[in-house]
């Protein structure tokens, strides 16, 4: 139960800022875009969210690792994030589900990570200058010069298609629903219980999205990001789901083309985060990179029709630009932090999407009912 913290580590940003700390992962050097996440819980879900590929995540909440890691909270098998930065990791973790300490988990998964740095100073830099390219070095022979050169050598996420890197190799079926507490038990759906056949494009999908579809009676088939629309349409789905995922949506031309074709066939379509951005692009809108993005679990978002405000979970660095919406796209939700666009709906075909995370893993459940809107869309179409 007791984690050993002894090796030194270094975090260097592209602007030359240097942070000295302690290694809480494996030895080595890792680069990526450094972003901050303000969630107070859910570090295991954050680490295993494929949307963090090529990003180094700083958690602003100061005590990370208190409950260790468990067997249920991973959003995918791998950690695609290229590093973790925290203030303080406790020497002892404690939770009835806890199986391993956070540092042991990071080492086993091959992740370079740093603790014991001033994460408030780091976050202020990211907020003022925008997300920075950065490098974490851990172990022996640390070199500030080498880390700075590595940070500055990172190409940055703009123009980077990472959905094709993190997607599944093969299509697979998913029938596991949400975990029930207590007792810890996962619901499953048999084929004859299923009400809707949903094909989910995997651009880096989080498991909790698939679980919430199953909870609502969907028989889900997850397909690789580059699956042609013709193959998806041949499966005669009641609905198509466009997943979250890492990187810039703009270079994902294969996805944009496939979504256009699905929309032409008027198949009910629902997108989350990267899937939302891709629906926007496939409908003729444009996306742009944000200064430091939204990463947290307390972001107020307003439903523009009902005026209702919901507290939501967010994790994105790009956004659909509301000023570029074509006539066939209606704005449905807006962020009350910075007025950026949070939701869109097609006016001519049954398709809509949300920028934040209704599966809220981690996060509040205020916007979870948006999954029911997808179900209603499939019901009306059937
Ligand atoms: N969580 C996501 O799907 C993120 C989408 C996209 N990679 C962005 O950063 O905006």
UniProtKB/TrEMBL annotation:
Pathway per the UniProt entry: Amino-acid biosynthesis; L-arginine biosynthesis; carbamoyl phosphate from bicarbonate: step 1/1; Pyrimidine metabolism; UMP biosynthesis via de novo pathway; (S)-dihydroorotate from bicarbonate: step 1/3
Keyword Flavoprotein included in the entry's annotation: no
Catalytic activity: L-glutamine + H2O = L-glutamate + NH4(+); hydrogencarbonate + L-glutamine + 2 ATP + H2O = carbamoyl phosphate + L-glutamate + 2 ADP + phosphate + 2 H(+)
Example of a GO biological process term: 'de novo' UMP biosynthetic process
Residue span(s) of domain Carbamoyl-phosphate synthase small subunit N-terminal: 7-137
Protein family per UniProt: Belongs to the CarA family.
Protein name: Carbamoyl phosphate synthase small chain
Lineage of producing organism: Bacteria, Pseudomonadati, Pseudomonadota, Gammaproteobacteria, Thiotrichales
Encoding gene per record: carA
């Amino acid at each position: 139960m007791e984690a050993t913290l002894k090796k030194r580590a270094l975090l260097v940003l592209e602007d030359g800022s240097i942070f000295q700390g302690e290694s809480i992962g494996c030895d080595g050097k890792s680069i990526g875009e450094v972003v901050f996440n303000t969630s107070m819980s859910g570090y295991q879900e954050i680490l295993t969210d494929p949307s963090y590929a090529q990003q180094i995540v700083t958690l602003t909440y100061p005590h990370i690792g208190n409950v260790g890691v468990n067997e249920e909270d991973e959003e995918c098998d791998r950690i695609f994030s290229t590093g973790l930065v925290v203030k303080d990791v406790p020497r002892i973790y404690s939770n009835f589900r806890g199986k391993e300490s956070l540092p042991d988990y990071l080492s086993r998964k091959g992740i370079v990570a740093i603790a014991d740095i001033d994460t408030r100073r780091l976050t202020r830099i990211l907020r003022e200058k925008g997300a920075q390219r950065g490098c974490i070095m851990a172990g022996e022979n640390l070199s500030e010069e080498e880390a700075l050169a590595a940070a500055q050598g990172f190409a940055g996420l703009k123009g980077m298609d990472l959905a094709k890197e993190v997607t599944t190799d093969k299509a697979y079926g998913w029938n596991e629903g949400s975990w029930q507490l207590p007792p810890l038990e996962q619901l499953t759906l048999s084929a004859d219980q299923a009400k809707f056949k949903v094909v989910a494009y995997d651009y880096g999908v989080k498991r909790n999205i698939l679980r919430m579809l199953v909870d609502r009676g969907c028989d889900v088939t997850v397909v690789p990001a580059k699956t042609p629309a013709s193959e998806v349409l041949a499966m005669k789905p009641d609905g198509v789901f466009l997943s979250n995922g890492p990187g810039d949506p703009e270079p994902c031309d294969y996805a944009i083309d496939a979504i256009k074709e699905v929309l032409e066939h008027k198949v009910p379509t629902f997108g989350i985060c990267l899937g939302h951005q891709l629906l926007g692009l496939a409908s003729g809108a444009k996306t742009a990179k944000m200064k430091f993005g939204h990463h947290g679990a307390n972001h107020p978002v307003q439903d523009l029709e009902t005026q209702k405000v919901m507290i939501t979970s967010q994790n994105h660095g790009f956004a659909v630009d509301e000023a570029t919406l074509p006539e066939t796209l209606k704005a449905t939700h807006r962020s009350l932090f910075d007025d950026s666009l949070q939701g869109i709906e097609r006016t001519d075909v049954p398709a809509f999407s949300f920028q934040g995370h209704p599966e809220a893993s981690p996060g509040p459940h205020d916007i979870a009912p948006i999954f029911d809107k997808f179900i209603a869309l499939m019901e009306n179409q059937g």
